[in-house]
Amino acid sequence: MNTKRQVVIRYVLSLLCLCVTMMAQAFEPFRFAVVTDVHINVTSKNPSEDLRQTVSAINNDDSIDFVLVTGDIADAGDGASLRLAHKLLSALHKPWYIIEGNHDQNWSESGCMDFIKIFGYEHFTFVHKGVRFIGIPTGPMMRMAMGHVAPEDIAYVKDILSANSDPVFMVAHMPMQPADVDNWYELTDAIRPYPIVAFVNGHYHRNLHFSYDGMPGIVNVTNLRKNGHTAGQYNIIDLAADSIRVYTQNVGDGRKQWLALPFTTKHDDNPAHWAPRPSYAVNTQYPQVTERWITDQGAAIFSSPVVVGKCIYAADNAGRVVCYGSSGTRRWTYATGARIIGTPAIGKGVLVAGSADGFIYGINAKDGTLRWRLKTDAPCVSAVTIEDGTHPRERRHRPVAGRRHQGLCRDTAARYRWKGGVRRLGQHALLP
Question: Global pTM?
Answer without folding.
Answer: 0.83
